[in-house]
Queue: 2 jobs
Job 1
Amino acid sequence: MEKKTLLTHCSDEPGLISKITNICYKHQLNIIHNSEFVDNTTSQFFMRTELEGYFNDETLLADLDQALPEGALHQLVNSGRKRIVILVTKESHCLGDILMKNYDGSLDVEIAAVVGNYDKLQALTERFDIPYHCVSHEGLTRDQHDQKVLEAVNQYQPDYLVLAKYMRILTPEFVNQYPHRIINIHHSFLPAFIGAKPYQQAYDRGVKIIGATAHFVTSNLDEGPIIKQDVIPVDHTFSAQDMAQAGRDVEKNVLSKALGKVLNDHVFVEGNKTIIL
Amino acid sequence: MEKKTLLTHCSDEPGLISKITNICYKHQLNIIHNSEFVDNTTSQFFMRTELEGYFNDETLLADLDQALPEGALHQLVNSGRKRIVILVTKESHCLGDILMKNYDGSLDVEIAAVVGNYDKLQALTERFDIPYHCVSHEGLTRDQHDQKVLEAVNQYQPDYLVLAKYMRILTPEFVNQYPHRIINIHHSFLPAFIGAKPYQQAYDRGVKIIGATAHFVTSNLDEGPIIKQDVIPVDHTFSAQDMAQAGRDVEKNVLSKALGKVLNDHVFVEGNKTIIL
Amino acid sequence: MEKKTLLTHCSDEPGLISKITNICYKHQLNIIHNSEFVDNTTSQFFMRTELEGYFNDETLLADLDQALPEGALHQLVNSGRKRIVILVTKESHCLGDILMKNYDGSLDVEIAAVVGNYDKLQALTERFDIPYHCVSHEGLTRDQHDQKVLEAVNQYQPDYLVLAKYMRILTPEFVNQYPHRIINIHHSFLPAFIGAKPYQQAYDRGVKIIGATAHFVTSNLDEGPIIKQDVIPVDHTFSAQDMAQAGRDVEKNVLSKALGKVLNDHVFVEGNKTIIL
Amino acid sequence: MEKKTLLTHCSDEPGLISKITNICYKHQLNIIHNSEFVDNTTSQFFMRTELEGYFNDETLLADLDQALPEGALHQLVNSGRKRIVILVTKESHCLGDILMKNYDGSLDVEIAAVVGNYDKLQALTERFDIPYHCVSHEGLTRDQHDQKVLEAVNQYQPDYLVLAKYMRILTPEFVNQYPHRIINIHHSFLPAFIGAKPYQQAYDRGVKIIGATAHFVTSNLDEGPIIKQDVIPVDHTFSAQDMAQAGRDVEKNVLSKALGKVLNDHVFVEGNKTIIL
């Protein structure tokens, strides 16, 4: 027996749950878990169906094609491990957390490689027997650097790219190669403190809470669909540096929770938002 | 068009979602929201289906009877307001919160009456034009008092009883008249600090967090199925009295969140646990 | 014996704690609690000292004057109840929470009056035997209306004004009459979603957390020193209206916590920030 | 210039803050941060004073001796790194978190060695160039095993021992060698679910929140002074195993926060409680 996840996204109409679950039943597939959501403002229907059984992908998808409204998107995803490449700069806490969670099995993913624009995190990465590519940006234009990073990344054919405190802005050309497949952690509670030095901005404004945001990367900086956010309290005793220090825990926790959702096929994207089923 | 909620609880078998949603579809009922859960340790299936359309309750339930495994429980609940009676002693914060949330519409419920074993909360209740019954326990046995409280309660035929800091233990005879229909707020994070004076117990133990637990009342004190729990941090500067004071907010928030789930038919009970769909 | 709180704010120099506590000791005043903070970026010293004993305010302040650096601010505040006036528009949840907490003693304050630009909350206010002034803004310029509100407010000589979802912007002339004495609750996690309809803005951006901010009002809208912030999680199932509904609880909790700090003389203001000792 | 922290614990009397800060002032020591607490139920005074300057420890402590009430405890602690030994069994998440935080500098401590009763975590430890001692308990009595562990530990003369999911109970003889210097992480919100398999207990009770508790180890199992606690929400979809999995994050976060407090000399112990200044 295999396990697969059926992801359906189409315009809403009566009877969709019944039609889809009927087809699964006829194919003798057992539904382990089913979640659906209708966005009433856009009349869009989303359903995530965890299935178990013997799959004939072709006939199953053909049956669904016939039953669902025109333009329906559906995907039958293997419930196995995904492959990721992680992009980093100099800070180790997010990378370290992913490495450690992968080590102890709480984040079940294949880390194909780590690519950094400095060599600072090479030793840490290699301690976990994962290849590290240092692609320095020095002396290169942004396009040139992105091109070299892409070459390093593409050889692994990853399902997703993870920007684990990668402190450079990707060109639209780069982003378009991995649409909704690049996950970034931004060190603020977006949309507050967009752009550079969010902790300094937070300190200057005198906020009492700081946060982090994991989101898909689109060509608009810090504007992509948000997957997960969380915050921690701060007070007047925190300098901007203290905030950055304290924020590390929330950054890594938010990133790894977002990864858990994405890597297990829970996340749909609709416009600038995510639906997490 | 009407709105009703179908609650299904039966032993698990393949095709249940398909069968139930098919029947709804045949009855031309639109599924607004559907949630299901299978408890794999007990092989029990739970489903909550919000429906919209023109209902023929009799034929719908008959169709379901035929389709579902023997012994299946199903209920078609009107999505209207429920009627509650609130039991109190002397503390006003939980009662006040329910009165105020009912006043501003954020807790949509009919408060038929408040019954207290003191008259301390009579004035507050009557400010909101709700009848108050003072049933003093003085000079009465527990059975006699419970009998008088039951008489005061039963005339309103409430859907649920809410113990909003009612500081007396109900007899099993009382509890059995409202099985899984009495909601209590206990002022600790159960199962820690069962019984009397939980804040004093928490102080004596030196805990760094205090909490509250909303649960259905069964004949075993503080042992009923838990609906909602939450906590707040405390530290060495808190006396037992400070903890009690700080705990009021978490008590009232937990109680009103639990009520929101129960009154909108989200809560199933299985053994000593709740499934909240 | 009396209780008073000494608030000291001056430029930092060695020996300040020693000097101030010495003077208190010589005056035979017992220190119940002492907290201090030095802002290293601005070299400012802040200290809050709860004292108990028989006070000779004049000689105590004179002794402090002599000991502290030039330009030092110090204040000896009676630890009694403060008097507030609450400004409202149509929403009842923040007002109701303050009324109820005042009723049960958990917010120990004298509510001198409630002033609203509609009469919607008159009945609720009067149930708690508090005078309500309806000052309609219809047909008035902003200056004219503010003038009439000020007249209604000033007759009570309040220590603080509380904007409990008062949905109008105060003129600088109004604000300047109560510098750092007007507390507002803004229904977003500032500085995100400044201005109108923050819940709609939050919905449009697809955030996964919404919040509330209590701050002192200055003449720059939504830019005053922040006293308290908190958040709650939301997800794709929340409409803008659902967010507004869910946000009510966090708004009222944040406002009443901020009030607790302000009314017990814990809050210093330095530039655009608060120091809470 | 040096930095040291003065920790004072004595019975309360008037003028203590003044006396202590005076002495510091006379010694030309600058107070960077001062916190005090009086436990009114026990009339005990606690003060933590961060000092900067040129220290003459002997005369400073002698001056304090003369000024403070008889039986006063005071300690002048170097603000440098502490040395710890970590005890483990098989689970890597707490150890991994400490190793990683030490690696990136957010937990500034010298990890002298890791001692485990299995060899499972040897490779991970050695990747961070830290010595690992495997001291198997097989075929040994508890006394014999503890004796061997003590030998491995004592050679490093650690300031503190950290039980990072060390799944064995220490003998009182062991504990007495490191009074208030052994920190344990218990995988429940104590005092709920004392003893073995707390997640299974939590599952069986149907709680809606699970937690973790960091505490000093005393000879009474799970009864030592609590340093830090935190919780996360769970629901009916969590098996006991899912709870254990989800609990890992809260365990490691609670442990590392407790360590941060202990290693920076913020924690006083009074009876069965901690005062954290």
Note: The mean pLDDT of chain C is 95.
Job 2
Amino acid sequence: MSHPHPELTLPPALPDGGLRVVALGGLGEVGRNMAVLEYAGRLLVIDCGVLFPEDHQPGVDLILPDFDYIRDRLDDIEAIVLTHGHEDHIGAVPYLLRLRRDIPLVGSQLTLAFVEAKLKEHRIQPFTLAVREGQTETLGVFECEFVAVNHSIPDALAVAVRTGAGTVLHTGDFKMDQLPLDGRITDLRAFARLGEQGVDLFMVDSTNAEVPGFVAQERGIGPVLDSVFADSTKRIIVASFASHVHRVQQVLDAAVAHGRRVALVGRSMVRNMAIASELGYLTVPDGVLIDLKGVDSLPDDEVVLMCTGSQGEPMAALSRIANNDHKVSVGPGDTVILASSLIPGNENAVFRVINGLTRLGARVVHSGNAKVHVSGHASAGELLYCYNILKPRNVMPVHGEVRHLVANAALAVQTGVPADRVVLAEDGVVVDLVDGKASVVGAVPCGYVYVDGSSVGGITEAELKDRRILGDEGFISIFAVVSSADGKVLAGPQIHARGFAEQDEVFEDILPDLTRALEEAAAQGAVDTHQLQQVMRRVVGRWVSNRLRRRPMIIPVVVEA
Amino acid sequence: MSHPHPELTLPPALPDGGLRVVALGGLGEVGRNMAVLEYAGRLLVIDCGVLFPEDHQPGVDLILPDFDYIRDRLDDIEAIVLTHGHEDHIGAVPYLLRLRRDIPLVGSQLTLAFVEAKLKEHRIQPFTLAVREGQTETLGVFECEFVAVNHSIPDALAVAVRTGAGTVLHTGDFKMDQLPLDGRITDLRAFARLGEQGVDLFMVDSTNAEVPGFVAQERGIGPVLDSVFADSTKRIIVASFASHVHRVQQVLDAAVAHGRRVALVGRSMVRNMAIASELGYLTVPDGVLIDLKGVDSLPDDEVVLMCTGSQGEPMAALSRIANNDHKVSVGPGDTVILASSLIPGNENAVFRVINGLTRLGARVVHSGNAKVHVSGHASAGELLYCYNILKPRNVMPVHGEVRHLVANAALAVQTGVPADRVVLAEDGVVVDLVDGKASVVGAVPCGYVYVDGSSVGGITEAELKDRRILGDEGFISIFAVVSSADGKVLAGPQIHARGFAEQDEVFEDILPDLTRALEEAAAQGAVDTHQLQQVMRRVVGRWVSNRLRRRPMIIPVVVEA
């Protein structure tokens, strides 16, 4: 297995007849999935998603794939193929379409409906081509065959891309539930046929490659919900992902079975389920849905609230309910079900919600104490099936952190794929498929692109570092007006501090020293304001370090008058 | 079970002959454990630990129990009983001794050695009384019998406190490994005897009460280490907690078995293992330990590095090794073992370390893929044994978040403890044991006390909120000098911003508007600097919100000249 190395340089030109693959996101993180295929001078984009920030990226709203690699080649893009409707696969489409509005979007009916709803908020009306499993479409030089896959959202597709350089099979996100609710299984017969025909490069979801065995069935959650519902004598609140149509379906079915009615809570939940129901992916039994306003007029044991916030997002309904800060209230005897995974990094927030609900007297059922969630991604056991049925000539693990990619690569090798044909690439690494062999040939710059308020890409690591210092250490601004004639301090110095135990008062102590230091500096010929500012920074910095043991950001301003 | 309620008021006076228990930390969080027992006007403190901050507490070094409840009663304290040497049980002792230096510390030999090393750094020499299991000491009005318990640090003790009001048994932290490395099991014979004599209030560790079944044996980790060592042909790095003497023992033993030598890395690891070895808790085979400097002269397959940083702490050895920023380097073929739990909230940091090490080519073995860690806290199955052998008259779950306390309470009830004798209390809740019945009688204020640089308790929620705003949104300071005569702007306005995509430059756009707004305000009679500052804040705030979609902290300063 070839490890990506920091010493990788820009790649040579793609040889004639070769296929190039560059991921601009999703290889090294779980999110912002985006792969760019190039053949004969033309490009095909597969997915264009967002990544959600971690705590060391304060204030950041979203993280995008880095479009720089294709910024000058937008006109070469034949289409964006969207494998399914999750945010980490479609969320960055509006930002790419801002660069070129008429790139066609290709995907299944539900995927396109979700992305169109999102684009509407950005006031973009896209060009779309809806496809179904089994269908083949020629997108410029790329012949794309779409294959059904099973995932935690309906209507997900893998795509086989045929070019003169060979066939690439990209799974998107998938698992292999053999008895899914909608009967739409990952099409292993198509995988087998593609394998017979020859898959030259298999780009395969790595998210669960470290997890041994097989993902349990979605269908298994129904009986668990049923028994929790049967045990509940008061209100039931279920939280899950706003796009998890089948999970919501099972909640609706359980509600009907137990004579309860369901109110959907949360904008994205309401919007997505309206789409899913209109398109026939969600079957809403007659009369089961009620408006949130109608909840209070029903007895507690006839109510289910289906809401977002299962990851402890502070502004979502569930967190606010747990904080007793929402029109929906929870009390002793109520049951809350977190029918969702616990995404790493969200533990503290989720446990805060669980503790809050527990404190209010609710029973909290979650994946830690009941089988109310199954993953959407193939575990190691399922991946082994895929490798064996496909017998791909080359493998490129996608979608995951480095640990996931490496674990997936090891599985490929275990099934007999030669180690030198398993390509470990991170974002920006350039992989060429030439003469039937895939290899790393270089890398292009590929950074994190932060969306922050109205700024896209303006925030860099430097600003994030500033924010971390501001958040951890606070800041001090110092202001003085000095005479341009004799350097005497005419006004100030004034100190303003934030984030300190003792606010401005304690800093009074330093003012006489500061004035003295300024006037001494002026007396010694330091007349320009920049030098005087450095004097103020030094005096205050040293004092704060000694007295308060802190290293805040210090902004000194000297004005001459 | 009585849930704590926010409407609790200050408690009435403790009835004559009654016993009062107030936890000043540890009930509602995992950490800063501290309980205060009161009888006949005298106080006994059990444990005095720290809590480590979460991400929403930026810049905070440590969180202490709230000593306010006992601040005016320091002279009533007979002693501080320390159940074991973990930071969350001893870490706040220096801060309590700062208030009264001569409070006696009572604990086992190893516990006292660890706390004395810590106090030495604070330049405090304590009064101590070393005790052993089986021993009974009269501490003023409290007769204390010490009972051996098994935990993830040697020499841990439970304490039975006898008073005229009845007997309290406090477990400290414990589990019930039946074949511990040192043969020192949790003394269920003593528990049985105490039960026969009558335990009126059982204060019991709740940390793992949600976890079904039993904790696996520490001894089971040896064979796993052995097989990982056998598979390793290059360097081995093991990371664990710096106080986990038995884990380190097993690493030393595995090293000897495989012809390797061990360098301890990290100040606390070196210090604690020196203490443990000197006191006979750690058996160091001859010649197995080497200095870190000696590592480079040994072949890779003769080296083990035993270090801290298993929680992804950014400054610890392991994180720096993973970042390629440490004198110890890791490369292809090396093995890293994280022999530790993953404490909730640390996932992102730990996974960053695992990804970094994986990227460097190392094989990373951790509790997610091998049995290299067992917990130190009794699971539900073990707790049931305790309840059944003790048959306590009243139960008060301690040490845990609300969800843990509630789960532990449910176990007590399942074994037949009447629900009205299971007391659910959080920090500050006052529990009185009167006439053999424990009940909640009120609550005293009990906040989080933040250590931040040199400040203890100065930082409040208000400053933390400021810091979160600073970290998420950045700040803008605005300065202007105006004429006291006619309100004309003499110098400035100047804007300085940090944490923004566009730093100061973009703010140039607003300066003309700002000057105009100031002079208009002055013309309309707003002459005091406070009013002018509000004008600046409003103009800049509105502009930043509209143009940048941000809500930073804004500090306007107007000086008259």
Note: Chain A touches chain B through 67 residues (CB under 8 Å).
